[in-house]
Amino acid sequence: MKTVSVILFFALAAAGCASKSKSRVEAQAAFLAGQNAALQQQVAAQTPSVTVIGPVQNSRVPWVSGLTLAQAIATANYLDSRAPKEIIITRNGESAALDAKVLLNGADIPLEIGDVIELR
After folding, report:
1. 88: helix, coil or strand?
2. What beta strand segments (E) does 1-120 contain?
3. How many C-beta neighbours within 10 Å does residue 98 have?
4. Coil, strand or helix: which one is 96?
5. Contact status, residue 89 vs residue 115, Cβ threshold 8 Å
6. What are phi and psi of 48, to 5 degrees?
7. What is the distance between the alpha carbons of residues 74 and 21, in angstroms, rounded to a whole number?
8. Most confident of 12-21, 39-48, 95-104
9. Local structure of residue 86 (DSSP, 8 states)
10. pTM metric for this prediction
11. pLDDT tens digits for 77-119?
12. 100, 83 Cβ separation under 8 angstroms
């Protein structure tokens, strides 16, 4: 009986060590993932882009010369099954609202670095 108790004791002790080791590895992985996410945010902040707010998959769209509103919305991957009713473009702190039907009828608007597009 004493031998069984000693074996059980060592088995539990070994399991505890494995749990501490596993916890340490998981904590280190979480720390590295957090650092990686922070670095990606810093890089994204330094990359010229426009921001699309609304039901989109990618809210940050890299800016390229000649980027238009329709291209930005397509690149952001609009997810709603209904077309937006209103689009608000904010540039240098000034906002302009337009009816989304204008865009759907073929008119397109050139964008600038830092523009924010809100789809409602």
Report:
1. strand
2. 49-53, 60-62, 86-91, 94-99, 116-119
3. 14
4. strand
5. yes
6. -60, 135
7. 46
8. 95-104
9. E
10. 0.63
11. 999 999 899 999 999 999 999 999 988 888 899 999 999 999 9
12. yes
| pLDDT at residue 82, rounded to an integer | 92
**CA–CA gap between residue 115 and residue 95 (Å, rounded):** 10
Helix (H) or strand (E) holding 90: strand 86-91
For residues 19 and 14, what is the distance between their CA atoms, to the nearest angstrom? 9
Task: Give the chain's end-to-end CA distance (angstroms, integer).
Answer: 73
Task: Write b or e for each residue in 15-33: b if 16 or more Cβ atoms lie within 10 A of its Cβ, otherwise e.
Answer: eeeeeeeeeeeeeeeeeee
Three-class SS of residue 59? coil
Q: Which tokens is 72 given?
A: 């930005």
pLDDT of residue 50: 97
3-state secondary structure of 61: strand
